[in-house]
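Lest this sound abstract, we think one record worth quoting, the chain in one-letter code, the fold tokenised, each line plainly labelled:

>
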Amino acid sequence: MLTVIAEIRTRPGAHHRQAVLDAFRKIIPTVLAEEGCHGYAPLIDHAAGVDFQTSAPDSIVMLEKWESVQHLQAHLQTAHMKSWSEAVKGDVLDTHIRILEEGVK
């Protein structure tokens, strides 16, 4: 099982981040139904009010669980992901993807 963390940096302004979140809301059920998907959740910073927190108001962190890299690659080629990418291209500046496995087994 792989954990994917994709940090999506949006253009400055809450409306850009919200547009990306709204686009995710539309495709989450479809993504969760994909073969090999075991989790798909967009996360944003919680206003915890603690001094040790780092926050990025123009960032969304996707936390994903996939059975394999092949499942992730197939996901990225789906029509709904291509449509999602087209829909948010004006709101997203860049995306950084990490593919992680358990460090201690």
Summary: The CA atoms of residues 68 and 86 lie 25 Å apart.
